[in-house]
Each structure stands twice: as C-alpha cells, then as structure tokens.
Specification:
With about 850 residues, the chain is an alpha/beta fold. It has 6 domains: about 135-210, no CATH class; about 215-290, no CATH class; about 310-495, 3-Layer(aba) Sandwich (Rossmann fold), CATH 3.40.50.300; about 500-545 and about 605-745, Rossmann fold, CATH 3.40.50; about 545-605, no CATH class; about 750-855, Alpha-Beta Plaits, CATH 3.30.70. The protein is built from 25 helices and 34 strands. The strands form 8 sheets. It has a 7-stranded parallel β-sheet with strand order 15-16-14-17-18-13-19, sandwiched between helices. The chain has a 6-stranded parallel β-sheet with strand order 20-30-29-21-28-27, with helices on both faces. Strands 3-2-5-4-6 form a 5-stranded antiparallel β-sheet. Helix 1 crosses helix 14, helix 20 packs parallel to helix 21 and helix 21 (about 720-725) packs antiparallel against helix 22 (about 730-745). The longest helix has 29 residues, at about 760-790. The two termini are about 50 Å apart. The structure holds adenosine-5'-triphosphate and zinc ion. Zinc ion binds next to loops. Zinc ion binds near residues 563, 564, 582 and 584.
C-alpha cells in the first residue's frame, strides 16, 4: 500500500496508572505569559478525570470568563486554598500527557535560567500541533454559568430587545453555546446587533480551548473469531462465494488486522465481500487510529555495525563505559571531518538501547537530510522517530505520540527534539555542537546544549557533543581542575584518507596581476580540471555580511530600508530590492535618490552572479545553486542535494548550507569565493565562525577514494583564522583565539547577557535602557557589600559589569529604535535573578508604553 501511515495505535489505551489517591487537586500553569500568572493555580480534579490527569497533562481550565489551556505541574491531596472557591478542570486534552514530571521541572529551570515565564518554556517543549488554539463562543448571559461577569450596573433592566434580538437570544439559549463564526453564518446581517447585545451584556463571549487533536483513523479488518476456525468455516460457504472463501483463507493464514483499503487494492476483494463476512460474524471491521509516517513508503536496507577504527574504538570505549555505569558524563568528541563520528554515535546508541534506555540525537535543521535520517533508520528501523520542520503538523504530532506511547526509543531531530518526552533517557548526542542554530532566538532563548546537559543530569545519562570544530565554550570546559566535560579526540580520517590540501589565494595579488574575475587563476584551473575528469566541485559563497547592496558611485549613497537601519539587498531575478528584516520590497532605482546620478549599480557578489559568471567561463557547466531563494520551497533542499549526489550537476554552489555534513564521494574540489566576509561583522565570535566554516567546507573534499583539494580566496590571507583553517590546525587556532578572548574579556572567560530595548521613540528607549542599567548596577553594589561582609571565600573570582546602553548594531528594525546593554560576569552571581527583579520594575512601562525588553542569556547573535 502506498499509504503514508504505519504502525497501529494501541487500541486499548489504559488510564495513566489507574486511580490513585492524591490526585484531588491539580496545580496548573495557564497559557497567559504574564507576571501575575507566572505561578501555578489550584484546580479540582473531577473524579471521572482523576485517572487521566498526570503531571505534564494538557488541560482546559476555566480562567475568568474564558477556558484556557494549561499544563498540570503538580498534583496533591490537599490545597492551601478554600476548596469551595476552586473550579474543576474542564477537559483533559490528550490521552497521553505530552510532557512528564521531569520536563515540567526542566521548564522551571528554564524559566529561571533564561528569564522567561514558565508557560513560555512549557509551550516550547511541545510540537506546534499541540499549541492551544482558542475559539470564541457566545452564550446567553444569565446561563453562562459562572463564565460571565454580570451585566454592567443598571443595564440589566434594559434586557428587553427587539424581535430580531429575541430570535437571536432564543437560538443561543436553545443551543447552549454557539461558536462566534457559526452565529455570523446563521445571522449574516446581525453583526452590529450582536455587537450591541454583547456590549449590553445580554450575550457574553466565552472563549474555549479548541481541540485540535487530529489523530488519523482508518478502517481495519480482522478475524472476529479464532483464526484457526476460519478454514473450517470457509468450507461451509456456498460454492459461488469464491471471493469470500479466499478472504477467509487469507485471514486463516495471516490473522493480523489489515486496512480495508489495502484488502480492496491488493487482494482485489470488494467492500461488499468483507461486509458479508462481517455480517456472518467471522470478520470484524473496526476503526483504528494510525500514525502518519513520512517514511512509511520507504524501506531502509539494514546496516550492521562497522568494525571500528582504533580512534573510533578509543572514543567508543569511554562512552560505553559511562553508559554501562549509568554515569552522567559529558563528552566532547572532537573528530576531524570524515573521521567517522556517526559510526561512534550509532554504536553508542545501540548500547544504550540494549540497556533498555532511550536516546536523542540532535542535528542542525539543515543537515536533517534524507542521507542523515537514513543512517539512523537503517540501523534502528522503526525504533526511530524523526522530528523536523518539514514534516506536516499531523506527522509531527504522530511522531511525538510515538514517544509518549513508547513505540520508539530513538529520536533524531533539530533543536526542539531535545524535549522528546522520554522517561528512561540514557544518551543525548549533539552533532555539529558548535552550530549556532542550537540556540533559539526567540523566547525562551535557550541553548539545546545547556538543556541537554540539564536533562541528562536528571537521568544519569551521557551527553556526547560531536564536532570537527568544537565551540570555544565547549572546548574550554574540557580542561582545568574539575572540568565538566571530557575530551575525546579522533585526529584522522577513517582508512588513513588524508585531509585535503588547502591553498590560500590572495585576491589583492590577483587584482594586481590584472585578474578582475571573482575566480582566481588557480581556482579557475582547478574547476576546469574537475569538469574534465567528471569530478565534482563545491563552491561556498558566504553571503552573510556580504549583502548585494546598491550604491551610487557618484556620491556613495547606499539604498537603505526606510524602516530598518540596514541596506536593502538586491535580487537580480525580480530586479527588486528587499529588506531582510521587515520584508519591504521596492523596485531598483534608475537614478540615485540622493544626487540624481545615473551611476547607481549593485555591488557585492550574490550567488546568482557567481552562477552567471560560471556560465560565462565554462559554457555548458551544470550548476546547482543552493541558497535561501532556491530552497524556500518544501523539499527543495533535499531535491537539490539528491540531484548533485546523482551527478546531475558539476558544481554545487551555495551559502553556508553547502558547508555542513555532506558526504559525497566524487567531490574533490572545494572553493571559497571570499573567506573574509564574516570576519568584519561586529561579533566577538567572528574569527571562530570563520575558522569553523572554512574547516567544515574544506572537509567536504576528498572524503572517499579520491583525494581532495581546497582553494580559499581572501583579502586577508594572514588572518589567523584563515591560516589555521588552511592547515587543519584546530589546536593552534584555539590557542590564539583563547588568548584574544582573555585579553578582550569575552567568553569563555566570562559569561554574557545581552539586554535589548526597543521602542518607537528614541528618547523613550534611551531613558528606559539607562534606568535599567542604573538599577542593575545598584543591585550589584548592594550584593557585593553583602558578599564582602560575609567572607572573602570566592569573592575575588566574582566579577560583574554592565556595559552601555549603546545603540544596537542594527539601530532600528520595523520603525522601532533599539538600544542594548551587555552584562559581563563571572563566578557565583545570580544574574538571572537580578535581571528578573530589575525587569519586574519595568512591567508597567512595558505594558502601557509598549516598551519591549529582551533578555538573552549567553547570546549567539549580538546585533
Ligand atoms: N569504521 C569504519 N570503517 C570504514 N568506513 C567508515 C568507518 N567509520 C566511518 N566510515 C565512513 O567514513 C565516512 C565519514 O564518516 P562520517 O560521515 O561519520 O564522518 P564525520 O566524522 O561525521 O565527518 P563530518 O564532521 O565531516 O560530518 C563515511 O562515509 C562513513 O561511512
Ligand atoms: Zn526593513
């Protein structure tokens, strides 16, 4: 069957652990992210729901005039409140609680650490399909039991209405509650009337949680009786009932349930035949829930564990030892590109599963290619659930349920898969641990690595952070006294394959020699050679920070977004200019808006221009371009990669996307068009990011039989990040970079918190930012005096400083001015607590003046 579902859902779902005392009251965090509601509220658990409510359940609870979604964070036998004033839980929204006690506790930790509301942390843990949707109903005021406020004073007397009003009231009264949109369908002309009735309080609006659970149901056929009797029964059928007889014999041989549609498709029996047998009591037709499975149509050839290389054995032994002892250890697996980290992950997972425990594998969203998924599915089959943003909502919801129902024991997914609701977690793997996509940029601004370590500690589980270019922060944690991470190194590629030879090309020299093309002579020749030998090339154009802006050559004017202080990006295909922050699109100017000159043109090298130039230099060359424009469509990313893998392209040209995780045997050349584009960003990690990107992309070359070659074109050939990358020298880079960080006072030598303020009026935002900084500094002064008075222990290690406020590097986005403060600290200082308290003092301003304050703990982006 070509269907997209697999694996039956358990038809007999049992209540949680059966009725149990102590579940009479539930503590619920409701879906209102505000300071006043950032605490649990007590509710009564009605006896009929007792068996279904657990810590981590999603429930619908009355809250003022509305019904809200909430999460049960505790259960108790008694309440500190007056029980008569408590309301009961109205609905339990899932048969299997989407979270568990450990995750509920983790949300508490997140809310403290990342300075966010608990509900925000809880919501971040569940798939989008489970986020609350609300529906508005109308009800007759006097009957909306407890939901409604009484009509405003004096108006109760005005209830008598027109005949139209009476008709509406009668209709609503008869139905109880009516969805608002159904009301408007029924009484299309009554909009204004309805509004007045609501205002007068004749009707009230009731908001409820809309149940969006969308488990898929399919009709299944199965034997009603003991299948062994079916052969005998089939003998009793009339001679003409050939199909019926065949079907019975089928079930006698294969008694497991079969979807009705599959019977008609495959065995060519009509629904009538099935029905006839069901009527005779031999077969049963039953609706069952199924899981939508994005990989159901695919079969994955089973792979066996590879014999490990010596370096792999060393790494695996350490991990295996910790797993065996159920000891919480964090390993940093530093293995060069092509050293076979994946095989170490796979065998570690195998051991974890053999111990009856569960494993989570995180990979950057962009590397969740079919190739990556296949490696895990081929080894562990149906035990693997996959979570990524390209799945439909239904598919993601079903993958999530498989975890709760214990149908899977491995989850592979992007950042948020770290919240997979396993209860016997043994191992969390984070591949490419240096990737900045593990940090969520909206609230809760968590880092998956930090969350993973927290979760693992609660389970006595092992964390493996893998990378060819570990982040400085992680690397620093592997040395020194009491180092929290343990370093495992794999310095060589498997089977003694060499790392590719890297050549640095000085673009200034090229220009001097009269070469004005974006390809140096060396890279040009190398590409030509590959075309000749039918080998493949990967070209990286690091566009970030290298915008294709439009500038007037007469006066130097650069076309800017009128709402955001950033230059507009030129898009050649549509000949338009676009703002990457607010999406504004406008036609390209013919003359300079500032000086009227006609010498206005776009600068910079977009992927489109590189593609064009390749076409001119190498007629007939097949270029596969991969950037935000060509991959915005669903599945496009995978399609392009498959095309390249099948050798339907000579060159894979793209942005950062082409640098990661790809393992293609015929890629023997990698070219970096301009290596220094990231170096000049206002970001203390600029050198680190440059080193990582160059090392990663270089690592795509020569991974198999054929050796590889790399060209790095740059205007700053002496920069240490470029030099060390060209020699594959992580150690030397780290030493230089650590030194520079120490001198400048940046992580890992301190911790950072970025506080950003935004408002439509610049005076307002400056005032707020300054007052915030002052309060924070005063708080620290008071704390320090306290520390000093207690004792000197650890005091010299404590450090705290507030820098700014200053205008943000992008001083305005969407017409809101932005200022920021940077907090640097070290040692035992409760900065999250200080920030929470300081921010609380601004609650009124935030609400009334629409001031926005964002607090980013350990920020990855400083713009
Ligand atoms: N023990 C082994 N014997 C033979 N081949 C192996 C072994 N381990 C891994 N390989 C092969 O080596 C290649 C590189 O492995 P893998 O993709 O896991 O590298 P990696 O360390 O993840 O590199 P990168 O960081 O660049 O992604 C793969 O094709 C893999 O199948
Ligand atoms: Zn804009």
């Amino acid at each position: 069957m070509a269907g997209r579902e697999s694996a039956l859902y358990d038809e007999t779902l049992l209540p949680l652990d059966g009725p149990e005392p102590g579940r009479r009251y539930a503590q619920v965090i409701v879906d209102v992210p505000a300071k006043q509601t950032n605490r649990p509220f007590d509710y009564i658990v009605p006896p009929e729901l007792e068996a279904w409510v657990g810590v981590g359940s999603r429930v619908g609870v009355p809250f003022g005039p509305r019904t809200l979604q909430g999460f049960v964070v505790g259960l108790s036998e008694s309440t500190g409140m007056d029980p008569r004033k408590l309301k009961p839980i109205e609905q339990v929204l899932d048969l299997v609680p989407p979270l568990n006690p450990e995750l509920v506790d983790l949300a508490r930790w997140m809310s403290r650490t990342y300075v966010c509301h608990e509900i925000t942390a809880l919501q971040a843990m569940i798939p989008g399909a489970l986020k609350a949707k609300y529906e508005k109903y109308v009800a007759v005021a006097e009957e909306a039991d407890g939901h409604s406020a009484p009509p405003p004073e004096g108006q109760a007397l005005l209830l008598a209405g027109s005949p139209e009003e009476d008709e509406i009231t009668a209709f609503v009264r008869q139905k109880g509650t009516v969805p608002m949109d159904a009301m408007l369908r029924r009484f299309p002309a009554a909009g204004p009337l309805l509004k007045r009735m609501l205002e007068r309080g004749v009707l009230v609006e009731v908001q409820t949680v809309k149940d969006r659970l969308n488990a898929k149901k399919v009709l299944y056929v199965e034997p009603a009786a003991d299948p062994r009797t079916l052969t005998e029964e089939s003998g009793k059928l009339a001679a003409g009932a050939k199909r019926q007889k065949e079907l019975l014999l089928h079930f006698a041989a294969h008694p497991s349930p079969v979807p009705l549609a599959e019977l008609t498709d495959k065995l060519n029996v009509g629904a009538g035949t099935v029905k006839a047998l069901a009527d005779k009591g031999w077969l049963t037709i039953r609706e069952r829930e199924v899981f939508r499975d994005p990989y159901a149509g695919r079969s994955f050839a089973r792979t066996e564990p590879l014999p490990l290389t010596e370096q792999q054995r060393g790494a695996f032994a350490a991990i295996s030892d910790a797993l065996g002892a159920e000891r919480h250890d964090v390993f940093l697996l530093h293995g060069v590109t092509g050293s076979g980290k994946t095989e170490v992950y796979l065998q570690s997972i195998q051991q974890c599963l053999d111990q009856g425990r569960e494993a989570i594998v995180l990979v950057p969203e962009i590397s969740l290619t079919p190739q990556m998924v296949e490696r895990f599915k081929s080894r562990f089959g149906d035990a693997v659930a996959v979570m990524h943003s390209r799945l439909s909502q239904g598919e993601r919801y079903d993958e999530w349920r498989k975890i709760g129902l214990k149908r899977v024991s491995v989850v592979i997914g992007a950042r948020s898969a770290v919240f997979a609701p396993f209860t016997k977690l043994g191992l969390i793997i984070i591949d490419e641990e240096h990737e900045s996509s593990y940090k969520q940029e909206e609230s809760p601004k968590y880092h998956a690595r930090e969350v993973a370590v927290q979760r693992a500690a609660r389970h006595g589980a092992v964390v493996v952070l893998g990378s060819a270019t570990p982040s400085l922060e992680s690397f620093a944690r592997t040395s020194g006294r009491g180092a929290p991470y343990r370093l495992l190194t794999m310095a060589d590629r498997v089977e003694g394959r060499p790392l590719p030879a890297v050549r640095i090309v000085d673009l200034r020299e090229e220009l001097k020699a009269g070469n004005r093309s974006m390809f140096s002579r060396g890279l040009y020749k190398a590409i030509e050679e590959r075309l000749h030998k039918k080998e493949q090339t990967v070209l990286l154009l690091n566009r970030r920070g290298y915008s294709t802006f439009v500038m007037c050559r007469s006066c130097g004017y650069v076309v800017q977004c009128p709402h955001c202080d950033i230059s507009l990006t030129y898009h050649q295909v549509s000949r338009t200019m676009r703002c990457h922050y607010c999406g504004l699109t406008q036609p390209e100017p013919k003359t300079c808006p500032s000086c009227d000159s006609e010498h206005i043109r776009f600068f910079g090298t977009g992927t489109q221009r590189v593609e064009e130039e390749l076409g001119k230099l190498f007629p007939g060359i097949r270029v596969i371009r991969m950037d935000v424009d060509t991959t915005s469509e669903k599945g496009a990313h995978e399609r392009l990669l498959t095309k390249f893998r099948n050798k339907q392209g000579d060159v894979l040209l793209g942005t950062q996307m082409v640098a990661k995780g790809l393992d293609f045997p015929d890629v023997t050349l990698v070219g970096v068009i301009a290596a220094d584009t990231v170096l000049h960003l206002p970001d203390f990690r600029a050198a680190e990011k440059t080193f990582q990107l160059l090392t990663q992309v270089a690592g795509r070359a020569g991974r198999h039989r054929l050796p590889g070659e790399v060209f790095i074109q740059t205007y700053t050939p002496d920069h240490y990040s470029i030099e060390h990358a060209s020699r594959h020298d992580y150690g030397a880079f780290i030493a230089t970079e650590l030194d520079s960080r120490r001198q400048r006072g940046y992580p890992p030598y301190c911790e950072l918190v970025l506080v950003t303020f935004s408002h439509e009026q610049v005076a307002m935002v400056v005032r707020a930012a300054e007052s915030f900084a002052t309060r924070l500094k005063e708080k620290w002064q008071r704390m320090r005096t306290e520390f000093d008075s207690v004792s000197g222990a650890g005091a010299e290690d404590r450090y705290f400083e507030v820098y700014g406020p200053v205008a943000s590097p992008i001083p305005r986005i969407k017409d809101r001015y932005r200022f920021q403060c940077m907090v640097k600290y070290r040692g035992d200082v409760d900065v999250s607590g200080m920030l929470t308290e300081t921010a609380a003092a601004f609650d009124e301003t935030v609400r009334q003046e629409k001031l926005h304050i964002s607090i980013d703990v350990n920020p990855q982006v400083l713009m």
